[in-house]
Amino acid sequence: MPNASVSSGQTGPATPSFSILVVDGTPTLLTLAEEALADLSVDGASVRLIGASSAAEARQALYDSPEIAVILLEPVLEQERAGLDLIAHIRNDLGNQRTRVVVCTAHPDSINEEEVISGADVSDYRAKATLTPRALRTAVTGQLRAFASLQALAAGRKGLARMLVATTGLLELRTPETLFPNILPRVVGLLGIGRHALLCIQGDTQPRDRKIRVRASIGRFAPWKDVELSALGEARIEAALARLSPSSETIVEADFCALRLRANGGVTGMIYVEGRNDGTAREWQLLELFRNKCAIAFENALLFEELNIAQKATVLAMGSLTEYKDNAAPGHLQRIERLVGEIARELLARGQFSDELDAECVEKIGLAALLHDVGMMSVSDETLGMPGELASNDLVAIRRHTEIGHRILSAVAAPLRGRSLLSIAAEIARYHHERYDGSGYVEGLAGDAIPISARITAVADVFDALITHRPYRSAWTVEQAIDWIRARSGQDFDPRVVEAFLIVIRRLQSAEPDWFPKTNAGQGVLGGLLGRKLRDLFGRRAVAP
Question: What is the reported pTM?
Fold first, then answer.
């Protein structure tokens, strides 16, 4: 098969022997079998004889050695038909249709050949009186090959079943974060050769380099993630991955296998699985099929990641247009994205707003919130830079930013299917100045009539405005801003959103105390604009703590 290789740098485990059960109340049949099969080897596998002198001993032997290939059976045991009852037990009770049964009887008159062949599932019938060592050897060799063929068919069915399990849903794992950890358990389960595996990527960093980095790992490699392979001191793994190339994308050795996954743009994925295996052609073919599926999923995930990066860069650029006129509140957009996303995740974890919030929405909502004020680009520089209180017509112009932002974003979201990032951004742009008690604008919506995305953004936007410096006041402390948000819960903000917000803020204070802006952070025209937005929402109480 092209683009693959099976190596044999080390000797694999010996081929298992065939087990043959000899059932006879006298030693006659076992003695004959020992003479006939002493040096027998079929396709590189030797034979192992197991003796049983009764049906009960035979049943125990079948329990101890379930993979018995052939049974040489004298049907007349402790009872005349005990052997035939044993056959029925094997086929019906144990459900074993693969083990070959050769009847070798000294009583052909009482155990008729036609009756046995037609009434019992046996493979051959021989009379002991005429059975020579050569004839027995020939008969057993044929039955062993038949058993091996049945085993191969069964293994093929199991392999296809494992392949189906391993590849089901693989292409649905669309991001590297979800795909990479899920590939490793699947390849380990496919071959059953071990539980230690890692996935490495080469060429996916900026600037591009040829260093190999671990992106996912299980088993003894589990502590390794986002580290350079060369720093781990695993020369054997490095040497194995170095052998992968476009002409050798699948390598199977006695104690490991390695796969190469290609992607456009010079990115290469490599999988290493540690464990003993016999490197059979069938397992190798399964591994090669799995590698091909993984390679497609790998490339799709990287393309999806690039698309997401490009989308985020575009959204950030659009959001930054609102701030380009002045260096206002450094990090405002990044903080809004983080807060909105974290609050949404907290609400999802609590099982709240399940009709609006799902995992897909939560992944998009933080980025969508960056565009909440994109409509401000329609407001003139004169109005934005106007000192003091605004005239009524200027106030109307500023309030219209919600409608204009919604119109812009709805138009570009229209061709997209489902609840896209831009459609979420459009509803945030329109409704993030609504109040929970119905006293906000543009439509005067109240309670659950306000989209949850807008209710979350309102809390995050006001909090960030309070903790950053404004021309008309100094930044509030985080605690003062928290008290303000809590005091307006049930009036301006949804109490459930406020509760989730408080949990998120306390978590950030504990884990990342430097995340919050410094009290002397930037100011400017947009700072004055945000101040007027606060006064418009809450009156002059928002001007000073």
Answer: 0.53
